[in-house]
């Protein structure tokens, strides 16, 4: 009973979310919404890109506007592995993730020397350099038209081959990978490393004084975020059986920042809900209004104006009002280093 | 060969002066309000579209040259009041607000003006011989307009009361408040001025570029490069960097292709950010 009522509601919510996601490919087609299974898959994939923005901005305080670079490396790593080495799903995923991680290590070693606006700008600059390079190097990347490939195998053993062309195999591969990424993130942000992230975010000078290597902490976060974006890119390549340099443009990075902030930064699952809200909103509005991007932009502005803590902030507020009389005292004596806006009242939070 | 280099260098100079005007708008907004205005390129785009629309409607480019910046100023006042001011306390979030604004501006233009790229006939026809090549007269006129606007802006900033107030708020907003300067209104006016400069740059550039809802997406990185290489908040540095970059891109383009030129600029920018974070001209002007 240590967490109080709020934690129980959070755990229940998480279980409900998990059950709903497991049921998606069985229930939605039955109801005649088969098309939405793909939308849910897309949300899951893109949410990892938003999560990578969140890991940097929400947990270490560095706003990156260039995560599309690592998304692109993940995308091309996977695609080129499939095309040139006939890799399957898992090898391709690994290749994409490694490519993005390596790029993030190089870019991060330079970028995390800077903070604040300078950091935001240099991440855009790095992503633009590779965007232009990828656009012009058509033999390797296919440029704007991109490269396409046929669905690789997810499972190929004992004479049984299952490829991504099987809708269930595709959905559950994506769901499994995405869930694993969130689980790893959850472990990391609660570990001593996660506390070091929070210390650096809250006050980097004080963090340095208590013996934290600020540069290395930021670099580790940057590389982890790059790996997440890489997984997202690799999954997206498998989902579309396609990679294109156009996904490396800074607009993609910007959208990921919007999703993360709309969902609520500094919370583990906030980016998932932010991505879901905006993609579902886009899908619904685009069926009735050709200029739906106007509405998406408007929604973005309104959320920042009226709910700057995002959906997670709204949820936390509602939960606080619901359980305040009983839960508040139990929550009060928290970890002294714990950040003010951490994962506490989010589904899955402590 | 050297003719081509020269022509592209002159082209770079013309573009550099126009970009300087737009980047200066970005720079004053950044310096005073401490926000990264991602929608600035789209405000330039609104200027090009507005310039074409007013020219078509009234038949006079010169009227557009005056009217569109004034409309841009009003648009800037409204945007600052409605969108920027309520979110100014979360400085990082203004990137997101202006990103949303950028989507809205692009989509609003696409909905009303259409997605089709258009070309605008230059208001001054003809060419002049320049270092052995025939050069468009309008491009030279455009460079002059931009240079005049830049000079006018610096005069305004140095010689008028409003300009002095803007500099005072930039220097120390708290002292400025204590001295009775209406800081909130100065912020609004600064944002509007920046918008007007982007719009003016748009009208001047309309006859020498394609006019469509995506023009701002290409121009924005270039403006940021000028602002960063010139030194964030260093206004003269911004102008110098814009011209320098554009001429450099012009020269690199003559031996390679525009993409390589852009990558070279971006690499220069990374170097400046990492090793001279206060800009290439830090210490030279102050």
Automatic annotation (TrEMBL), chain A:
<dbReference type="Pfam" id="PF02653">
    <property type="entry name" value="BPD_transp_2"/>
</dbReference>
<keyword id="KW-0812">Transmembrane</keyword>
<dbReference type="InterPro" id="IPR001851">
    <property type="entry name" value="ABC_transp_permease"/>
</dbReference>
<protein>
    <submittedName>
        <fullName>Branched-chain amino acid ABC transporter permease</fullName>
    </submittedName>
</protein>
<keyword id="KW-1003">Cell membrane</keyword>
<keyword id="KW-1133">Transmembrane helix</keyword>
<feature type="transmembrane region" description="Helical">
    <location>
        <begin position="292"/>
        <end position="315"/>
    </location>
</feature>
<keyword id="KW-0472">Membrane</keyword>
<feature type="transmembrane region" description="Helical">
    <location>
        <begin position="116"/>
        <end position="134"/>
    </location>
</feature>
<feature type="transmembrane region" description="Helical">
    <location>
        <begin position="219"/>
        <end position="244"/>
    </location>
</feature>
<feature type="transmembrane region" description="Helical">
    <location>
        <begin position="35"/>
        <end position="57"/>
    </location>
</feature>
<feature type="transmembrane region" description="Helical">
    <location>
        <begin position="6"/>
        <end position="28"/>
    </location>
</feature>
<feature type="transmembrane region" description="Helical">
    <location>
        <begin position="90"/>
        <end position="110"/>
    </location>
</feature>
<feature type="transmembrane region" description="Helical">
    <location>
        <begin position="63"/>
        <end position="83"/>
    </location>
</feature>
<feature type="transmembrane region" description="Helical">
    <location>
        <begin position="171"/>
        <end position="198"/>
    </location>
</feature>
<feature type="transmembrane region" description="Helical">
    <location>
        <begin position="256"/>
        <end position="280"/>
    </location>
</feature>
<dbReference type="InterPro" id="IPR043428">
    <property type="entry name" value="LivM-like"/>
</dbReference>
<feature type="region of interest" description="Disordered">
    <location>
        <begin position="330"/>
        <end position="350"/>
    </location>
</feature>
TrEMBL record, chain B:
<keyword id="KW-0813">Transport</keyword>
<dbReference type="Pfam" id="PF02653">
    <property type="entry name" value="BPD_transp_2"/>
</dbReference>
<keyword id="KW-1133">Transmembrane helix</keyword>
<feature type="transmembrane region" description="Helical">
    <location>
        <begin position="259"/>
        <end position="276"/>
    </location>
</feature>
<feature type="transmembrane region" description="Helical">
    <location>
        <begin position="137"/>
        <end position="157"/>
    </location>
</feature>
<comment type="similarity">
    <text>Belongs to the binding-protein-dependent transport system permease family. LivHM subfamily.</text>
</comment>
<feature type="transmembrane region" description="Helical">
    <location>
        <begin position="12"/>
        <end position="33"/>
    </location>
</feature>
<feature type="transmembrane region" description="Helical">
    <location>
        <begin position="219"/>
        <end position="247"/>
    </location>
</feature>
<keyword id="KW-1003">Cell membrane</keyword>
<feature type="transmembrane region" description="Helical">
    <location>
        <begin position="178"/>
        <end position="207"/>
    </location>
</feature>
<keyword id="KW-0472">Membrane</keyword>
<keyword id="KW-0812">Transmembrane</keyword>
<keyword id="KW-0029">Amino-acid transport</keyword>
<dbReference type="InterPro" id="IPR001851">
    <property type="entry name" value="ABC_transp_permease"/>
</dbReference>
<protein>
    <submittedName>
        <fullName>Branched-chain amino acid ABC transporter permease</fullName>
    </submittedName>
</protein>
<dbReference type="InterPro" id="IPR052157">
    <property type="entry name" value="BCAA_transport_permease"/>
</dbReference>
<feature type="transmembrane region" description="Helical">
    <location>
        <begin position="53"/>
        <end position="79"/>
    </location>
</feature>
<feature type="transmembrane region" description="Helical">
    <location>
        <begin position="91"/>
        <end position="109"/>
    </location>
</feature>
């Amino acid at each position: 009973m240590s967490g109080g009522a709020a934690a129980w509601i959070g755990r229940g919510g998480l279980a409900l979310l998990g059950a709903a996601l497991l049921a998606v490919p069985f229930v939605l087609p039955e109801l005649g919404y088969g098309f939405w299974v793909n939308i849910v898959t897309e949300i899951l994939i893109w949410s990892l890109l938003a999560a990578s923005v969140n890991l940097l901005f929400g947990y270490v305080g560095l706003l990156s506007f260039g995560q599309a670079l690592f998304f692109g490396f993940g995308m091309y790593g996977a695609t080129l592995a499939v095309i040139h080495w006939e890799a399957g799903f898992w090898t391709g995923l690994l290749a994409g993730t490694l490519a993005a991680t390596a790029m993030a290590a190089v870019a991060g070693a330079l970028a995390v020397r800077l903070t604040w606006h300078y950091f935001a700008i240099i991440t855009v600059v790095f992503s633009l350099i590779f965007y232009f390079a990828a656009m012009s190097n058509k033999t390797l990347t296919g440029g704007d038209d991109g490269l396409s490939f046929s669905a690789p195998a997810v499972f190929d053993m004992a004479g049984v081959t299952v490829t991504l062309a099987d809708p269930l195999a595709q959905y559950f591969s994506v769901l499994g990978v995405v869930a694993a990424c969130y689980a790893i993130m959850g472990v990391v942000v609660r570990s001593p490393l996660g506390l070091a992230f929070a210390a650096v975010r809250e006050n980097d000078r004080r963090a340095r004084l208590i013996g934290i290597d600020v540069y290395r902490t930021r670099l580790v976060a940057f590389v982890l975020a790059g790996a997440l974006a890489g997984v997202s890119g690799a999954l997206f390549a498998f989902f579309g059986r396609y990679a294109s340099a156009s996904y490396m443009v800074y607009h993609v990075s910007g959208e990921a920042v919007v999703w993360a902030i709309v969902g609520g930064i500094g919370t583990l699952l906030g980016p998932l809900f932010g991505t879901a809200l905006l993609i579902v909103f886009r899908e619904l509005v685009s069926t009735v209004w050709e200029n739906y991007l106007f509405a998406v932009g408007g929604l973005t502005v309104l959320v920042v104006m009226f709910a700057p803590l995002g959906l997670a902030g709204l949820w936390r507020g509602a939960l606080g009002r619901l359980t305040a009389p009983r839960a508040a005292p139990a929550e009060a004596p928290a970890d002294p280093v714990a950040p003010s806006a951490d994962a506490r009242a989010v589904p899955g939070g402590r | 060969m050297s003719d081509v280099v020269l022509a592209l260098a002159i082209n770079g100079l013309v573009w550099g002066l126009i970009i300087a005007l737009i980047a200066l708008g970005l720079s004053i907004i950044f310096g005073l309000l401490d926000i990264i205005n991602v929608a600035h390129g789209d405000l330039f785009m609104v200027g090009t579209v507005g310039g074409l629309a007013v020219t078509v409607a009234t038949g006079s480019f010169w009227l557009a040259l005056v009217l569109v910046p004034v409309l841009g100023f009003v648009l800037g006042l409204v945007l600052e009041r409605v969108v920027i001011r309520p979110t100014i306390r979360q400085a990082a979030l203004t990137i997101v607000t202006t990103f949303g604004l950028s989507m809205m501006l692009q989509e609003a233009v696409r909905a009303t003006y259409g997605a089709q790229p258009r070309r605008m006939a230059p208001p001054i026809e003809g060419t002049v011989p320049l270092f052995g090549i025939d050069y468009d007269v309008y491009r030279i006129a455009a460079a002059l307009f931009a240079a005049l606007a830049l000079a006018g802006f610096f005069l305004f900033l140095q010689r008028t009361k409003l300009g002095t107030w803007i500099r005072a708020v930039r220097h120390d907003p708290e002292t400025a408040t204590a001295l009775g300067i209406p800081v909130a209104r100065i912020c609004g006016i600064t944002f509007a001025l920046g918008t007007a400069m982007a719009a003016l740059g748009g009208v001047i550039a309309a006859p020498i570029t394609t006019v469509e809802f995506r023009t701002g997406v290409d121009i924005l990185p270039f403006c940021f490069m000028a602002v960063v290489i010139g030194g964030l908040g260093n206004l003269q540095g911004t102008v110098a960097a814009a011209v320098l970059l554009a001429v450099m891109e012009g020269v690199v383009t003559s031996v390679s292709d525009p993409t390589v030129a852009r990558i070279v600029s971006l690499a220069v920018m990374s170097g400046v950010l990492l090793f001279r974070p206060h800009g290439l001209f830090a210490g030279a002007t102050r």
